[in-house]
Amino acid sequence: MSIAVINLAEKFGKIKELHSYKLVARMNDYHFKLVKMKREFIWHSHPETDEVFMIIDGNMQIALREETLYLKRGEMVVIPKGIEHKPSSSEECKILLIEPVGTINTGSAGGDLTDTEIEWI
Amino acid sequence: MSIAVINLAEKFGKIKELHSYKLVARMNDYHFKLVKMKREFIWHSHPETDEVFMIIDGNMQIALREETLYLKRGEMVVIPKGIEHKPSSSEECKILLIEPVGTINTGSAGGDLTDTEIEWI
């Protein structure tokens, strides 16, 4: 059995497209996903789970209904389950997401931005 | 309700002692713990859970029975449940651990290095 050391910068180097979620690790029933984001996402929530955003490089913001969170490299946040949020980034931001296997990026909102084909890199 | 942005470097700045685990976040039933390590830890395993090591600064190694993993800043690894491992670092290494609430640092091995009083910072 071989256990892989995961270099996050190297993994991001393999991701050519924006907004394409890639799996890099699994811990029990949780996935670690990378995404390069440069867009305004949609309002959505995950009624069944908390969700972690960790900023590997760049800056992003996460609008909540009553405040806006500003995140930069080396920072993370836990969005509690059921809380509506709208991530956005005006420049490319490299994000590590941690959430249960099967969590959908658009949560219960659905729509065109839903990404259901997530590959391992 | 206020949601905290967690700056990992700032949190590490508040940790004065080596080998004192501190909680910085909870996602569902998982804890995010910081520790500054400079020692050779003991062989142990967690029969009930995988465990994530993410290196925020410095270098460390994790001996397994058949290989040794070398990790540096920006790298992470998932140690599968039940796999014996022995973390060590000759210089101070800043580590983010992700594991289920209640996971004990020494796993099923126990002993003097067991840390059961983990505070939030």
From TrEMBL, chains A, B:
<dbReference type="InterPro" id="IPR014710">
    <property type="entry name" value="RmlC-like_jellyroll"/>
</dbReference>
<protein>
    <submittedName>
        <fullName>Cupin domain protein</fullName>
    </submittedName>
</protein>
<feature type="domain" description="Cupin type-2">
    <location>
        <begin position="40"/>
        <end position="98"/>
    </location>
</feature>
<dbReference type="InterPro" id="IPR052044">
    <property type="entry name" value="PKS_Associated_Protein"/>
</dbReference>
<dbReference type="Pfam" id="PF07883">
    <property type="entry name" value="Cupin_2"/>
</dbReference>
<dbReference type="InterPro" id="IPR011051">
    <property type="entry name" value="RmlC_Cupin_sf"/>
</dbReference>
<dbReference type="InterPro" id="IPR013096">
    <property type="entry name" value="Cupin_2"/>
</dbReference>
